[in-house]
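Project channel, design review

CF: Before we commit to the Cloacibacterium normanense constructs, I'd like one complete example in the thread so the newer folks can see what an input/output pair looks like. Taking AraC family transcriptional regulator.
RD: sounds good, go ahead.
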Amino acid sequence: MLYRKIFFCFFYLSLFFSSGKIYGQTNYETLRSVYENFDESDKKALHYVKIYIQRAKQEKNYPELVQGYRDATFYSNDKRLKIKYADSAVATAHKTDDKELISTVYLLKGSLYYFYYKNYQSALAEYLKAYQYSKDNKDDYLKYKIIYQMGLVKSYLGYYNEGIEHFNECISYFEPKAKGNSHRNIIYNSTKGYLNSLHQIAVCYRNIKDYRKADSIIDAGLRFSKIDEFPSEKAYLTKCKGISVYHHKDYNSAITLLQKSLPVFNKEDDFYWASVADFYIGKSYLGLGKEDLAIQQFEKVDSTFQKRQFIVPEILGNYNFLIKYYHNQKDSEKELEYSKKLLKADSILNRDYKYLSEKIHKDYDTQILEESKTKLETRNKWGLGTIVILITILLIVALLAWKFYKNGKQIKLKYLELENNLIQQNQQTSLSYESVSIYANSVLSEDIFNDLQNKLKEFETNKGFKENGLTIDRLANILNTNKYYLSQYINDVKGVNFSKYLSTLRINYITKLMYEDPYYLQLKVQGLADECGIGSRQNFSDLFQEINGIRPADFVRQRKKEMEGQGGILGALS
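CF: and here is what came back for AraC family transcriptional regulator:
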């Protein structure tokens, strides 16, 4: 630090007395050496960075000016300023027509939105721009940073297996460079990439309940020889270890490890993982029978949500604990307050998930497949290239034929499984409905619970779900009840939200009709959708497959085949 101050004093004096000489002869690497060893978000470095930026502006050296703005985002401790500097970097990069450089700054801006704001929609928009400009570039480091960021979005959306594929690619790329003998900056960046990829892949494995794999990865990260040099990454892995030991019911160790990681998250304003850590500390206190301490943690998680308007599905159960607690305390005002907050959190998740899911698959995954196809088509068409393409085509045809055969078998199995369920339902003498004993799992009062149980039973019996455009507000009015209570009852008893509950009733109803009455096998998809109250044919097809595990067209085809076979047997017997 003393060396940097002395260096800067001489540098500044020479700049004051002979600016022409300093701008003409001093290289940018020397200017950066004054501040490059400052810690991230150390605003003292900005004083030096601004001189670097001024130099690049006067010389109209746009690549170096971009570097200056990137450095400013790194050393600024104000997240709004970080975005401002990133915007300047983007505008300047476009003046260079250097696609690789433009891609880099879009990726930087997306990462700022992700890390400091947890604004996934804005982050993904920047990542997709970065991807567009990165095509055909030779910078593998940039390529794998984009792969990593897309993995983060997929993990957030719950596409954990796809996320695992992304992070495995990143680990394969970063690990050798982190343990190699390259330049210290390459080793530093690769080590961060490696440790962050370990953290994220462990999160994915935990969410698909492969705890053994997650534990192995976490331990590998914490044993890494340079882990102490990377406090942020160590905190992430320590947090993962805390959640892991919670699942093994070692609640005291879980609390210790999670509390150990929190100071780093709070210092870096990483409210995503701070909320997750607080949530699992609360659950650990519950495991120890310390309910009051648990509620303090859950209310802390809620406070973060109210401030940031951000939540992840993993901690949505936070509100169920609070609702149950205040119900038992007979504090109806608090119970209703947290019921409303639960609905608000759920609506935010639904909004984000729809947008992100469409964009990530349409604008990223589909383009990758298209590019792969284009590269195959533009390969050398003569000689050995032709042979390779022909062999590739034959292999693809064989693979498609095998997949078609396998898919046909899977459709047949799914149909038989669905048919068996329908037959069992028909053999029941009365509607299967939840008994009052389920009330023990609800946070509602017994009177409200029983009232909603009777009304919903009548609603289902009378097929009220067939009404097109039915909303929870509309149904609550029909049943003469409160929509918050209605939502809570459906969540408690059915184990799903209102939308899923309504979709399941509609699809089960139309599936039964299609199985029992040949008339419905003749209808088009839109006709089937209209019959059960679903407005969109695409939405109907998606829901039918999601709930039944088979597309409506495949169900119709299998049912017709079966009925033709039955007709042939009957004709032969008569």
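RD: helpful, thanks. The chain is about 80% helix and 0% strand.
CF: The two ends are 100 Å apart (CA to CA).
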